[in-house]
Specification:
There is one protein chain. With 608 residues, this protein is of the alpha/beta class. It is 42% helix and 11% strand. It contains 20 helices and 15 strands. The strands form 4 sheets. The protein has an 8-stranded parallel beta barrel with strand order 8-9-10-11-12-13-14-15, surrounded by 6 helices. The chain has a 3-stranded antiparallel sheet with strand order 1-2-3. The radius of gyration is 27 Å and the shape is globular. The N and C termini lie far apart (116 Å). The protein binds iron/sulfur cluster. The site of iron/sulfur cluster has 8 residues, from helix 20.
């Protein structure tokens, strides 16, 4: 190496180390950042599996009718005030014993990897990497789908049921009916029919079980991961903790730069939510970014490597068939999926069928050994309004339906990825086609973006589509941040993306008749009408921003009990005026009733 290049290289390493040090400091700040105001971590125990402790968020209220509300909590043990976290140790392994007790897994050494080069790593490796991994024993079936089909209720299933109920068990007979509750048996039933999945790699024992399906709460995914130009391991762990604090139900590590393996280890060991990946990204790194050089061998090794690290679901673009590629030629924006374009390039260079399709059965066999779920990728999704719902998109969806049946035949759990860029009037057709072609396997959609004219605001263009498709039946929404199409999202973009998508998911939950979602809305509206400002902030998706906006004009403590805000002012506050009308009407009713009693409580009065 030339002297100047060596010098530049060392300056680069020094700079990376500085970034890591700074990031570590920042991220530790976040882990100290416990619950939201007036919120506390509570735990609900299992009934079938007594040792289950399902973490929930209890928001304490000043409401005279309701002391508190229990909410679904994605933040893991990070928001427990008694917990002190160490990034270097990772999270407690809450599921390890459940897997071992089933007696169908073995602890074994990791598979030797030929293509992975760790020597050039520029970042610190996770210091507590386990030497052993879990794998199915003696070809036994170990997926949640297999157990469900064999009428076995697992701790994972009961955990999901408790989370979905959001503490409604104790309010049955009062606010809720028994049929509003999700039972472990219902979870089992939905998984057994392929209508829901529990992403649950046995090598990710740190993750808290959750369910994705159209008859459950709508979930949100946040994408994190470094690019070849920006970001370090600590930055990504920091983004993970930040994303789940705001409500992300799963995260996808979409790293494409160097050190993918190491960054993933840090993320998985510190993640209480399932982690998804797109393995073709790493496979491509292993062949120096040359798509034509990809081989089944390199890809297969990458699947095993990631399954043994603990990835819970894989995006696999097996539906991009050679014969569909010419259908994209007349598109305005061609193939916009990274994975889809890599596969298309490989197919054309070799003039061969997609190797993910031709090796699909073997992929299923690998995934079933660790219970990794499929997220069957939409490599031909439309990348513009012009290309929505075209032949190539729906041809691929048809193939995904065929692959779903093959995966189910091997007891591998499946969800289906969906578009993309779709105008509002074409969204419903996507949901209907997915349900008929893919037999109602959970749909996992990116947006869809409902217009292309708002770069910088694509979290909004896409949340409109996400709310609609969620209402129609989508199970999980992949968030879009304001930086979409423009750059790698930073921490603030992650928060804005997640909160925006929580709005879409919650709006869909309401439209789908979820009673818990309705209850939260009811309590917030009640707090607003009764001028309990603190309750209004604390029941919202982003209490800090709500309070901050209020305090920008009326910061004093007295304003927190005032019967107006600065928007309309005291004289024009319609809430205050309606409350006065209500009070006057109540007073009138009381007076009339007293008069009725004074006159002897007779229904008919004699004429004088
Ligand atoms: S002043 Fe206007 S915005 Fe503020 S609480 Fe009253 S009605 Fe609502």
């Amino acid at each position: 190496m030339h002297y100047n290049n060596i010098k530049r290289y060392y300056i680069y390493i020094k700079m990376l180390k500085k970034v890591e040090k700074k990031s570590l400091k920042d991220s530790r700040n976040i882990s100290n950042y416990k619950s939201f105001p007036k919120s506390e971590k509570i735990y609900i125990n299992g009934s079938i599996f007594k040792d289950l402790r399902v973490g929930m968020r209890q928001v304490n209220l000043e409401d005279k009718d309701f002391n508190s509300i229990t909410l679904y909590d994605t933040s893991g043990i990070y928001s427990d005030k008694n917990y002190i976290h160490s990034y270097d140790k990772g999270l407690p392994k809450i599921k390890l014993d459940w897997s071992k007790k089933r007696n169908d897994v073995i602890e074994t050494t990791k598979t030797k990897l030929k293509y992975l080069k760790l020597n050039n790593s520029k970042i610190k490796s996770f210091p507590n990497i386990s030497k052993k991994i879990l794998k199915n024993k003696d070809h036994k079936e170990i997926t949640q789908l297999y157990y469900a089909r064999n009428n076995i209720i697992t701790p994972e299933m009961e955990y999901c049921a408790i989370r979905e109920n959001e503490g409604r068990e104790k309010l049955v007979g009062n606010l809720f009916k028994k049929q509003d509750l999700v039972t472990p048996e219902y979870v089992r039933d939905q998984v057994s029919k392929g209508l829901a999945i529990i992403p649950n790699n046995i090598n990710h024992p740190e993750s808290e079980p959750m369910i994705i399906g159209k008859n459950f709460l709508v979930k949100v995914n946040a994408n994190i991961g470094n690019s070849s130009v920006l970001s370090s391991a600590y930055d990504e762990v920091e983004k993970l903790i930040w994303a789940i604090r705001w409500g992300s139900d799963t995260i996808m590590d979409l790293s494409t730069g160097e050190n993918i393996h190491e960054i993933r280890e840090w993320i998985i060991r510190n993640s209480p939510v399932p982690v998804g990946t797109v393995p073709i990204y790493q496979a491509l790194e292993k062949v120096n970014g040359v798509a034509e050089d990809l081989t089944w061998d390199v890809y297969k090794e990458t699947l095993i490597e990631q399954a043994e690290q603990g990835v819970d679901y894989f995006t696999i673009h097996a539906g991009v068939r050679l014969r569909y590629i010419p259908l994209t030629v007349d598109r305005l924006t061609g193939i916009v999926s990274r994975g889809g374009s890599i596969i298309a390039k490989w197919c054309l260079a070799h003039h061969k069928e997609n190797f993910l399709l031709t090796n699909f059965e073997e992929i299923c066999e690998i995934m079933s050994k660790y219970d990794v779920s499929f997220s069957l990728g939409d490599g031909l999704r439309p990348g513009s309004i012009h290309d929505a719902n075209d032949k190539s998109q729906f041809s691929e969806l048809e193939t995904l339906g065929e692959l779903t049946e093959i995966a189910w035949g091997k007891n591998v759990q499946v969800m289906i990825e969906g578009p993309g860029h779709v105008p509002m009037h074409k969204i419903k057709e996507n949901m209907e086609k997915e349900e008929s072609l893919c037999k109602s396997a959970p749909f996992y959609t990116l947006g869809p973006l409902t217009t292309d004219i708002a770069p910088g605001y694509d979290h909004i263009t896409s949340a409109i589509g996400a709310a609609m498709i969620g209402w129609y039946g989508t199970s999980m929404l992949c968030y879009v941040t304001p930086k979409e199409h423009l750059g790698l999202p930073d921490k603030e973009d992650v928060k804005v993306g997640v909160v925006t998508y929580k709005i879409a998911a919650h709006a869909a939950d309401l439209a789908r008749g979820n009673t818990g979602a309705y209850h939260r809305d009811y309590l917030l509206s009640k707090a607003r009408f009764e001028f309990r400002w603190r309750d209004q902030f604390n029941l919202s998706l982003d209490p800090e921003t709500a309070e901050n906006y209020h305090d920008q004009t009326l910061p004093s403590e007295g304003a927190k009990i005032a019967h107006f805000c600065s928007m309309c002012g005291p004289k024009f506050c319609s809430m205050k005026i309606s409350q006065e009308i209500k009070d006057t009407a109540e007073k009138g009713k009381r007076e009339m009733s007293e008069k009725f009693r004074e006159l002897g409580s007779n229904i008919y009065l004699k004429k004088d």
